[in-house]
Amino acid sequence: MATPPAPARELPDYMPARMVNEFVYCPRLFFYEWVEGIFRESADTLEGKIQHKRVDKAGKPLPAPDQLADETLQTRAITLSNDRLRVIAKMDLLEIEGGAVTPVDYKHGKPYELDGALQVWPADQAQLAVQALVLRDNGYRVDEGVIFYASTRQRVRVPFTDDVILETEAAIRDAWALAESGRIPHPLEDSPKCPGCSLASICLPGETTTLYNAASQDDTGQLVLFEELPARPTPPPKETRRIITPRSDLRPVYLNTQGLRVGRSGEVLQVKEKDTLRQEIRPIEISQLNVMGNIQVTTQVTQLLCESGIPVCYFSQGGWFYGITTGMLTKNVFLRQSQFRLAAEPWFCLKLARKLVGGKIRNQRTMLLRNHTEPPAASLREMKEMALRADSAASPEELLGIEGNGARLYFGAFDGMLKTGDQAESPADFRLDFEGRNRRPPRDPVNALLSLGYSILTKDLTIACYAVGFDPMMGFYHQPRFGRPALALDLMEPFRPLIVDSAVINAINTRMVTATDFVRSGDAVALTPAGRKSFYHAYELRMDTLVTHPIFEYRVSYRRLLEVQARLLARVLEGEIGDYPVFVTR
C-alpha cells in the first residue's frame, strides 16, 4: 500500500540568502536546515560565529540610493529584502563609493585557485549574488561584490555578470520549489562534502543510499528485498561510500545517592550532599543526567541543561522511569505529522510490528547460541519457526501470540546462560538462579536486574526519539497508553536481548553483581544502592560495545546505534526508504 501524501507545509515569507548558499552547496542540507529546522553545530560553524561577532554589530544607517553620489563610507549588518524573489539578506559589510554599493561577505575557509587566479566557491557566490539582487531591488547600483575568506585573509572580487545573476535567480526558484514540495532530496553521490558536514550523523547519506534499493539476508540465507520506492528527484548511486560518523565521547551521568542536590555555579554543575561538595560536572562532557529517586535538581541547572540540549531523566529509587525534561529540540513537526498519520494505518503498523518482533526473536535465538552452555535444540528450532511466522503474521493479535511463545522458549532456557557458581552461602531469597520471567514487581534478583535494565533502555530510546523529532508516546506495535512511551518500546524490542539481557548476563557471570546486592520489600526484590551502581556500570559497558552493522558493515557502538535506527525509521515514515531495516546480529 502507498504511503499517504504528506500535508502541505507553511513556509516563511522570505528565504534568507544563507539558505540559498546551503541549497547550492547541498539541497538536502538546505531542506534539513530551512524546511525542517534541524541544525547541529560543528567546529567550523562555531569558528564562523566567532569571526562574525565584529561584522554583526550594526553600523551607520544606509543612505537612500539618491544620496550616494558623493558618499564614501562603510556600514555593517544591514538587512534588506527582495519581494519579487522572496529573499532576504543581512549583509556583513557594505562599501559605498562613487554611487555604487559593494557587498562584502565574510566566510570561514579559503578560496580555491583556477588557472592561477583565486576563485570563490559556487555556494558563496550565490549568497553574495542574492545580496546584489536585494540591493538592486531597493534601488541601489551594484556592479560587483567581495568575499573575504578569514582563514587566508584574502579578498576575492565577484563581478555580477548577467550569467551570475540568472544562475542565482534560478537557484532561488529551485530552492523555493523544493521547499514547497515537502520532499527531501536524495543524498549527494559520493561527495567529499559529506564527511565534514555537521549534519552527517543526521542525514546518514551512505546508509540512506544503501537502503534505497538494498537487499539483506535472513537467517535462512534467502534474499529479502526491500520494497521498490517511488522515483526520487536524484537517483541513488550504484556504489556507496559510507559515512561513518565519529564516536561521541559524551557519557551519561547517574545520580544514585538519596538526598543529593544538584546546583549550578557558572557553567559547572555542583553535586552536594547537605553542605559537602561531592562532584563537579561540566555539561559539555555529558550526554544526559539521570536522577534516581529523592534527588533535587535546581531550576538553574534545568535551564542550563535544556539550553545545552542535555536531557534530565527521572527515575524512582527502584528504577521506574518517570519521565524526561528536555529543551525545545523537536522542531520537526512534519515528521510527527507523518508518525501520527501512519500510526492510524493498520497495514503500516502490522508491517512494522512484524519486523520488530521477528528481529527480537532472532536476536534472542542468537543470544542462546552465543551464551548457553548447551543450547536446547528444540528451543532453537521452534524460535526459528516463530521468527518466520512473525514475518507473515496476519494480525497484531497473532503477532502478540508469536512474541509470547518466543519469549517463553527464550526465558525457559535463560538460566543456562548464567554462570552462578557456588551459592551455598547466599540467602535463599537472593540466589541468582532464574526460573522464569516475572515483573511488577520483580520477585527475584535476576528479574530485578532485567526490569531495571529495560527501564534504562526505555529511557535511552525515548531520548533517541526526541533527538530525531518523534513523539515517543505514539507507537505502531505498542498501542497508546497513558504515560507509556510506546514508540520507544517499539524500537526497543530487537535491542532487549542484545543490550539489557547481555548486560545482566555479564554482570552476574563476572560477579559485578552478587546476591549481597539485593534487598526484599514484601514480595518485591530490588537492588541496593551499591548494586544499582554496579549494574549501571555493566549497562554502560554494553552500550559502549562496538558491533558490526550487518547492512552497512561498519563498527558502531550500541549507544550510537539506537539513534541510527530511530533515524532510519524516520526515513521510512518520510518515504525515503521502503522498509525498516531492523537490527539483527549474527
Keywords:
single chain, 586 residues, alpha/beta, Lambda Exonuclease, Chain A, Ribosomal Protein L15, Chain: K, domain 2, Four Helix Bundle (Hemerythrin (Met), subunit A), 6-stranded mixed beta sheet, 4-stranded mixed beta sheet, 17 helices, 22 strands
Characterization of the model:
The chain folds into 3 domains: 15-176, Lambda Exonuclease, Chain A (Alpha-Beta Complex); 251-325, CRISPR-associated endonuclease Cas1, N-terminal domain (Ribosomal Protein L15, Chain: K, domain 2); 333-543, Four Helix Bundle (Hemerythrin (Met), subunit A), CATH 1.20.120. It is 39% helix and 19% strand. It has 17 helices and 22 strands. It has helices at 17-25, 27-35, 43-52, 122-137, 162-181, 200-203, 205-212, 299-307, 333-343, 346-371, 377-391, 396-412, 445-468, 486-492, 495-509, 529-543, 558-573; strands spanning 15-16, 72-82, 87-97, 100-107, 112-114, 117-119, 144-149, 154-159, 215-217, 223-225, 251-255, 260-265, 268-273, 276-281, 286-292, 296-297, 312-315, 321-325, 518-521, 524-527, 546-548, 555-557. Strands 1, 2, 3, 4, 7 and 8 form a 6-stranded mixed β-sheet that branches. The chain has a 4-stranded mixed β-sheet with strand order 11-15-17-18. A 4-stranded mixed β-sheet has the order 14-13-12-16. Helix 13 (445-468) crosses helix 17. The radius of gyration is 28 Å and the shape is elongated. The two termini are 31 Å apart. Mean pLDDT is 80; it is low at 215-247.
